[in-house]
Amino acid sequence: MKKLIIISSIMLGGIYVSANAQSGTNSPYSQYGLGVLSDQSQGFNRGMNGLALGLRYSDQVNMLNPASYSAVDSLTMIMDVGLSGQITNFEENGKKINANNADFEYAVALFRLMPKVGLSIGVVPFTNIGYNYSSKYNIGSSEESVLTTSTEMHSGSGGFHQAYVGFGWNAFKGLSVGANFSYFWGTYDKSISVVNSDSYVNSIVKTYSTSVSNYKIDLGLQWQQRMSADNYLTVGATYGIGHKLGADVEAVISNTNTQTNVSDKTTEIVKNGLSLPTTFGVGMSWRHSNKWSAGVDYTFQKWGNLDFPEYDASTGKYVMKSGLLKDRNKLTIGGEWVPNAMSSNFFNRVHYRAGASFATPYIMVNGHDGPKEYSASVGFGLPLNRSVLNISGQWVRSEASGLIKENTFRINIGLTFNERWFMKWKVE
């Protein structure tokens, strides 16, 4: 009972931190869609740039494929917590600026519930929203003696999270199935303020907000085959159920006369305006004894058939529109190497990891495709008795023609506690 209380306290602490943590992004692209997508990987596979679907370990929590839970050792309780810090360089028209962020990433746990069944609980981010920038433009022609300068200020905060319970079952030799059942929640607040230098021109403020409280279900499958004495092939697949989130999205438009300070306020509400996409994933890995493993993942998120709310300036209405989102594809390769896991030499027991990914955007920006994403990572798993300190560095580049370019360098730190809580000691 004490152990269950400890686990529950860690998970509840993770939920609290997730709900109140600073946003993990400063990207202006987070104003579109549901925000900047999180990769949801844990400490061990962040060094492999999020490789997960075909990975199957008895001493790690791999929540991206719940079928992997059935591999957990029967004597082991695994807990894993992680955080990150990053610096991002934004570049537009030859101008550059940097921004720093730190964020709580995840808290997960895994143990054997019964023979052939593993149970995992945890809290992970789904998206992050956080941006604050402004732009200026002139109203009128250059021939006029006086031009009105308008300043547009954009800001937003929020994000969405998952608190999940997952099961993995080894249905029969070589084949495992699993599912994550998540409570999905979050909020966002976005605003656009237009202020004019001419006091005779009205100022306009548009605010968009929502609150989500719903569910998310993800299914997984893994098939593992022993190819020779020391070689194993694992094939994995996942399916995420797409559905409406039941959230109303509100737009409030305030038009203020700067001479009289009188505001005309209009409120528009879009009922049930947000959705989760249907998601498919396949992956494969090859493991050689306890020395090295390598794999590849492909995921597809069907955002393109989802409508999204947008303010229509021509009609003054807040309505659902198609064509604001698009299908997302992501390809990841990665692997790890351990010189000698049983060696007395510390450096021979370190896990050395690397990975790379390419992803297409799921958002449209002013009628054009959003930024493509290129990323790569290297990492280390440092053994600390039965625990592991996972440290990785990741570089992410987001770019699209004519849009802001982002280069992010991120440090991920995760600590995996691997304790034999369920061992029964015999005293003679």
From TrEMBL:
Leader sequence segment: 1-21
Alphabetized UniProt keyword annotations: Signal
Name of the featured protein: Long-chain fatty acid transport protein
Organism from which the protein derives: Xylanibacter rodentium
Lineage: Bacteria, Pseudomonadati, Bacteroidota, Bacteroidia, Bacteroidales
